[in-house]
UniProtKB/TrEMBL annotation:
Entry-linked InterPro entries: Otopetrin
Family: Belongs to the otopetrin family.
Entry's Gene Ontology cellular component terms: plasma membrane
The protein's name in its UniProt record: OTOP1 protein
Gene Ontology annotations of biological process type: inner ear morphogenesis
Length: 574
């Protein structure tokens, strides 16, 4: 690689580096302008309406649509050319995941269109145009990511950098818009619960953006308005996943890759039954807890306290199990002597950075809760459960991040050359016969050993395959004998231990995968004790704590989904 980088390539890298810097600055300014516009609408700034924000987002989506159409058209004309691909980017399971979220996003857009039709008398045309544009944008973007997420662009690099980074920050702005809309809805529900519970010492003003006119069909309006907010969590995950996939595409522009065979690692259910069973138990119980929580919270003071106590006890139990599983996995890694893969990999690097970066959202909320418990003068009984819950959230994310990051950096297990070939000396009629079985046959022999059968290589016989029938024959023990050394037996025992470790790690990864999906559900669908226990709001003040929660919660929600995706990859790789 060093020799190939002569003076021409070094000189040519400066314009590309400048293009990378310029495009990143363009994207950041694009994002900041949209972020301020979103904030201005949220605080009801003078002269800023929702139509201004939607017009800006529509413009960004239309520009991205034009760029994607241009890229797809150029790719069709050059489809016969051999293109470099990043085998680590755009995994099939990731594409399937983003497709699922995109389908639900399209349902959300159809609800918005129906909502606009019912309130068309008092809504601006942009509120009807936005979901239509967004639906077209979603369909084309998913198709683009399915076909070109692995591309390593080597032509029109400067132009492509601007196009890709524009797409990255367009999705981030759409994610921000979804987060803000969903957070405002959650905040309004929280304020209504506080009114029900009689908190008179907190000034409560509902932030209502409802249309100032009557709906044409009341039943449909209610379905659309309520259904929209249950679909927003999937829309939010869709845009953040799209932005991460596009960011990897942007980092790969102009990248030089080594051409080597990438082994496919398909997901298999075999061997992970225990992890799946425990994980499904956690998932089922979590759904039940969320349903009961949403029904009971805000009904009365006693029911709210019981709902919070139930939530905290369940979460403490699940987090303790996850911590234990993570520690066991890390101990197994410490017992193994395997090197880490430190090669340049933008997708893997981004995964690690997102894990640590988004975990900071949960850590911020947890430390806020711990500080509130320490500083509060009065402590209702249920608030004490918040202390071990917050501590376990910090520890669990710390352990899980270590496990995932080490797992995605560990090299695939390689078979040593000196055990791939096993020489068996057979003495027959005074001559020496050397047979060299394949490693696959030896590996299959190990499976028989684990099932209680002694492989033919360790018996006093030699296994052969008959070409006409494919059957196995044994040579007569009177005319031959097999000599095997202690190293051959240790080969089988060593592989048996390795296989057991791998099975344990796969079960742990499967269990943690389902646990992270379980812990994604409560905050995504409105089960947020950070809002409802009231202790933090008393210590920090209502408005400051609500700002902290609204800023940190989106990162906490994304962390769980991203961890689940990373653990799925770990399970496939192990």
């Amino acid at each position: 690689m060093e020799k190939a980088a002569g003076s021409p390539s070094v000189g040519g890298s400066y314009p590309q580096k400048n293009a990378e810097i310029l495009s990143s600055q363009y994207g950041i300014n694009l994002f900041l302008a949209g972020l301020l516009l979103t904030f201005a609408w949220a605080v009801h700034a003078v002269g800023i309406s929702k139509s201004h924000l939607l017009s800006y987002l529509i413009t960004l989506m239309l520009i991205q649509l034009l760029w994607m159409l241009w890229y797809l058209g150029r790719s069709c004309t050059q489809r016969r050319l051999i293109r470099d691909k990043d085998t680590h980017a755009g995994a099939r399971w990731l594409k399937c995941g983003i497709t699922l979220f995109a389908v639900i996003t399209l349902i959300l857009d159809s609800f918005k269109i129906g909502y606009y039709i019912d309130f068309s008398n008092c809504l601006s045309p942009t509120e009807g145009l936005f979901p239509v544009t967004h639906a077209v944008h979603t369909i084309l973007q998913v198709y683009f990511l399915w076909c070109h997420a692995k591309d390593i662009i080597q032509s029109f690099k400067t132009l492509e950098r601007f196009g890709v980074i524009h797409s990255v920050f367009t999705n981030l702005l759409l994610w921000t818009n979804g987060v803000l809309t969903e957070s405002k809805h959650q905040l309004n529900e929280h304020k209504e619960r506080l009114i029900t519970l009689g908190f008179g010492n907190i000034t409560i003003v509902l932030d209502d953006h409802a249309p100032q006119c009557n709906c044409t069909t009341t039943t449909l309006c209610s379905i659309f308005s309520q259904g929209i907010y249950y679909l927003y969590p999937f829309n939010i995950e869709y845009h953040i996943l799209a932005s991460t996939m596009l960011y990897v595409l942007w980092k790969n522009i102009g990248r030089k890759v080594e051409h080597h065979q990438q082994h496919k690692t398909p997901f298999k259910f075999h061997g992970i039954t225990v992890g799946m069973i425990f994980g499904l138990v956690v998932l089922t119980s979590t759904i039940a807890i969320v349903v009961v929580y949403l029904i009971q919270i805000g009904r009365s003071k006693m029911k709210s306290e019981l709902a919070l106590t139930m939530f905290y006890l369940h979460a403490i139990f699940v987090l303790a199990l996850m911590c234990t599983a993570g520690i066991v996995a890390l101990l197994i890694y410490r017992l193994e002597d395997r090197s880490l893969d430190n090669s340049k990999n933008p997708a893997r690097k981004l995964d690690a950075e997102l894990l640590v970066g988004t975990a900071a959202g949960s850590w911020l909320l947890s430390w806020g809760s711990i500080l509130a418990i320490i500083c509060a003068q009065a402590h209702p009984k249920y608030t004490w459960y918040n202390l071990p819950y917050s501590v376990l959230v910090i520890i669990e994310k710390y352990i899980q991040n270590l496990f995932i990051i080490e797992s995605i950096h560990r090299e695939q297990e390689k078979v040593n050359d000196d055990i791939k070939t096993l020489r068996i000396v057979t003495i027959s009629r005074g001559s020496t016969l050397s047979l060299t079985p394949s490693y696959k046959e030896i590996y299959n022999g190990r499976a028989a050993l684990e099932s209680g059968e002694v492989p033919c290589l360790l018996k006093g016989s030699v296994c052969r395959r008959e070409n006409d029938r494919g059957a196995k024959e044994e040579t007569s023990q009177d005319k031959s004998s097999v000599m095997h050394s202690a190293s051959d037996i240790s080969f089988y025992s060593r592989n048996s231990v390795t296989n057991n470790k791998r099975r344990i790690l796969k079960n742990i990864a499967a269990f943690l995968f389902l646990c992270n999906l379980s812990l994604w559900i409560p905050p995504a669908f409105g089960c947020r004790p950070e809002y409802d226990n009231g202790l933090e709001e008393i210590v920090f003040g209502f408005e400051p704590w609500i700002i902290v929660v609204n800023l940190a919660m989106p990162f906490s929600i994304f962390y769980r989904m991203h961890s689940a995706a990373s653990l799925f990859e770990v399970n496939c790789k192990t």
